[in-house]
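Researcher: Quick test of sequence recovery. Tokens follow.
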């Protein structure tokens, strides 16, 4: 079956309105702050992360159509710039290829982007193209994507909650929580003490029977990360995540040597399998966290999972429980022990009422994806 067309369309999934929901108890944690981030040292943009994040025009999806009219689709991260990579470069050059040849097409796309680099915006474009092809493959074969990659590898996925509304996560039945770190090096000793106090209070709140992690979101330098790790050691934090900027490989090497007792995780902002290969070879971290919608799609994630298993490194995809794409990867790959579920919606509102059609949500901290062909997300053609 050949590819008939590849294009992007404007696409904004229909999200339920939660502002006036009768079960809403309070504003969710993202409405407040602070959250440590790479811009924390600049007061103009320190308080609120969305102030400096990209605002590229429009929401887009990549649509791949086979000769028989079957369609696969996936959202395009970073909006119009990444959509242009598909429409003006990759898409026209891949018409007529075998629609089932996901590995070949991924490799071709990666090589085509060499003149301007396959990471960054190009990786978002490649991810959308690859995931649309996997969605199409599942529909053509009448199988969910997790079956195409060898699954299901487990009966159900065990999820941990990411966010700062810990009381709500305990009520929902999550067995582990990951906190966003509020303060970074620019906040001085007072910020450090507040971080430690947050970890202490959360450990007291959740008890010793649940795991606790800390997301540092590229806000630290090596010295600050080491000092914080030493201060919070009594509270048994399972891992520190994304302490450093993603391109600081020397810093990751130093951090691994200086806090050998502390679990370390990163990879959310790495693109293609190349940085994961380097990190595995150098033993830089304990857990890889690729984002399937950013790293290069399912094909890239399969490559990363294979090299991680060979290096005895766990893979826990970034926000893997929040998209059908991540859910199928987590369900179908045996090297993924946990599934992250980011909870940024108001406490009190049932999770199943906060997502778009076709997407599964955790119940009691457990999750099973849709068994519909492809990724199971309905696509309505543009009118």
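Model:
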């Amino acid at each position: 079956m050949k590819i008939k067309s590849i294009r992007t369309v404007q696409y904004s999934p229909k999200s339920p309105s939660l502002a006036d929901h009768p079960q809403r108890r309070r504003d969710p944690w993202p409405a407040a702050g602070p959250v440590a981030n790479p811009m924390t040292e600049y007061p103009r943009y320190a308080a609120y992360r969305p102030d400096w994040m990209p605002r590229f025009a429009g929401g887009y999806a990549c649509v791949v159509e086979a000769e028989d009219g079957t369609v696969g689709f996936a959202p395009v991260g970073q909006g119009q710039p990444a959509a242009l990579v598909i429409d003006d470069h990759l898409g026209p050059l891949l018409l007529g290829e075998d629609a089932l040849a996901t590995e070949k097409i991924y490799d071709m796309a990666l090589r085509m982007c060499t003149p301007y680099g396959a990471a960054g915006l190009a990786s978002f474009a490649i991810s959308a193209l690859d995931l649309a092809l996997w969605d199409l493959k599942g529909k053509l074969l009448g199988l969910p994507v997790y079956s195409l990659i060898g699954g299901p590898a487990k009966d159900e996925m065990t999820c941990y909650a990411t966010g700062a509304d810990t009381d709500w996560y305990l009520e929902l039945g999550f067995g582990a929580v990951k906190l966003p770190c509020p303060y970074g090096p620019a906040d001085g000793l007072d910020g450090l003490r507040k971080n430690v106090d947050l970890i202490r209070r959360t450990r007291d709140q959740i008890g010793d029977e649940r795991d606790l992690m800390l997301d540092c979101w590229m806000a630290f330098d090596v010295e600050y990360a080491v000092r914080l790790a030493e201060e919070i050691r009594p509270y048994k934090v399972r891992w520190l995540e994304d302490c450093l900027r993603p391109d600081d490989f020397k810093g990751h090497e130093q951090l691994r040597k200086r806090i050998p007792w502390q679990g370390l995780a990163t990879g959310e902002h790495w693109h293609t399998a190349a940085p994961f290969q380097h990190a595995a070879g150098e033993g830089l971290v304990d857990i890889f966290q690729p984002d399937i919608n950013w790293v290069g799609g399912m094909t890239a994630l399969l490559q990363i999972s294979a090299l991680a298993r060979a290096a005895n490194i766990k893979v826990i995809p970034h926000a893997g429980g929040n998209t059908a794409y991540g859910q199928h990867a987590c369900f179908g790959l045996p090297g993924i022990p946990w599934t992250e579920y980011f909870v940024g919606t108001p406490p009190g509102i049932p999770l199943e009422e906060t997502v778009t059609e076709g997407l599964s949500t955790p119940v009691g901290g457990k999750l099973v994806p849709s068994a519909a062909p492809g990724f199971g997300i309905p696509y309505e053609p543009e009118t």
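The first strand starts at residue 3 and ends at 10.
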